[in-house]
Amino acid sequence: KYKLNHFAISWNPDGTLLGPANIREEITLSHNHDSFVGTFTLDQYNSGGNKLVHLAGHVRAKRITVDTPVTDVL
After folding, report:
1. What is the dihedral of CA 32, 33, 37, 41, to 10 degrees?
2. I want to staple 42 with a disulfide (CB 3.0 to 4.6 A). Which of 13, 31, 46, 55 is the partner?
3. Which H or E element spans position 20?
4. Alpha-carbon distance 58 to 11, whole Å?
5. How many CA atoms lie less than 13 Å away from 73 in the CB half-sphere?
6. CA 29 to chain centre
7. Rg (CA), the chain
């Protein structure tokens, strides 16, 4: 298991600064290390530090390599 706490800078469609976004994930890696599942939250702030939106959901992923065919991804 691991946790991610990532800050990013977000921009408005016109190219002006919107403010920071905070992405947090709690992930559980499979025993064979080929997939993971977990949850996430994303909080978007404006440049004044006011929270604009809060999103939450689930993530799921499967390991791919440079040799993975597209049929395995779809």
Report:
1. 160
2. 55
3. strand 17-29
4. 25
5. 8
6. 15
7. 16
